[in-house]
Amino acid sequence: MDVMSNTSNIISGEPGKPAISVSTYSGADNLREPNTQSVRRFRSYDELKKDFQKINVNVKTDPEIITEIMTEIKQDNSSDERLAILLEDLSYYLHQIDNAKIFSRNGFETLSRLLHHPSYEVKKASLKAISAATQGNSDVQVVALQNGVVDQLHSFLKASMDEQDSLEFTTLLSGGVSTLSALLRNFPVAQKQFFSTSVMSPSGFELLAKLSRLNVTNGIRGLRVRILTLLTDLYSERLDTQIAFGEDPTKTKMDAWSIYAR
């Protein structure tokens, strides 16, 4: 039997055997009748659009989140634990320069008030939030000074010296010095106010000296290191400005040095 005969038998079928349809091999039936299960896997454009709209509704910007946090902080029904958590969350967002600028419009008054909260955790978290907002952010440092944050930190450190000897006590003092450092660095106007003998009582130097001489046993070494680091950094900052002015006495550098030299 030749090849053509075999092919003919396969297509047409031999007597007593069903013929094999060409469409079985060509997939013609599949092309004519789409698989509805495959089609159902793909949603319409309108369905996708509705899903994306739902997602966008739930997306909040950083300023919106900060506003919500501050609104809840200002309420009087939050527990101390919840308040501390909110302040920790706030600190996370305030590390961003733009977020801190938005917060500074009306946020420092609330944080300054919380420095006198009875809860240790709340006070510690408040200090952390102020540090996050002011660290390396000159615009926010100016707003903080205008809102009396330097005075509040001075009062906080002064009042905290009278508390009991404990690790929590010295931890708060160390946190206060760190927050003060974030506000004073590269900000000679704030430094002048804090260390002035006529504005603050006791002056900043006297206050830091008293803190370093506290007769406590828990964490005093860490507190002294923070105080020494702050004073050393501020001295180096002042010296660098003086040297820069001496090497290049332009008006800009002269103005910068004149602020330190007053």
What does this 3D model show about the protein?
The chain is mostly helical and 262 residues long. The chain has helices at residues 3-12, 22-26, 28-32, 36-40, 45-58, 62-74, 80-94, 97-103, 108-114, 120-134, 138-146, 149-160, 167-184, 188-195, 204-212, 220-247, 251-261. It has a single domain, classed as Leucine-rich Repeat Variant (Alpha Horseshoe), CATH 1.25.10. It has 17 helices and no strands. Helix 7 (80-94) runs parallel beside helix 10. The longest helix has 28 residues, at 220-247. Keywords: Endoplasmic reticulum, Glycoprotein, Protein transport, Signal, Translocation, Transport. Belongs to the SIL1 family.
Distance linking N and C termini: 117 Å
CATH homolog superfamily? Leucine-rich Repeat Variant
- Largest β-sheet summary: none
The number of distinct β-strands equals 0
CATH architecture: Alpha Horseshoe
Number of domains: 1
Q: List SSEs in N-to-C order.
A: HHHHHHHHHHHHHHHHH
Overall shape: it is globular
What structural category arises from helix and sheet content? mainly alpha
CATH topology: Leucine-rich Repeat Variant
Report the average pLDDT across residues: 82
Radius of gyration: 35 Å
CATH class: Mainly Alpha
Number of helices: 17
Uncertain segments are: 22-28
Secondary structure elements and their pairing?
Elements: H1 3-12, H2 22-26, H3 28-32, H4 36-40, H5 45-58, H6 62-74, H7 80-94, H8 97-103, H9 108-114, H10 120-134, H11 138-146, H12 149-160, H13 167-184, H14 188-195, H15 204-212, H16 220-247, H17 251-261
Helix pairs in contact: 6-7, 7-10, 9-10, 10-13, 12-13, 13-16, 16-17
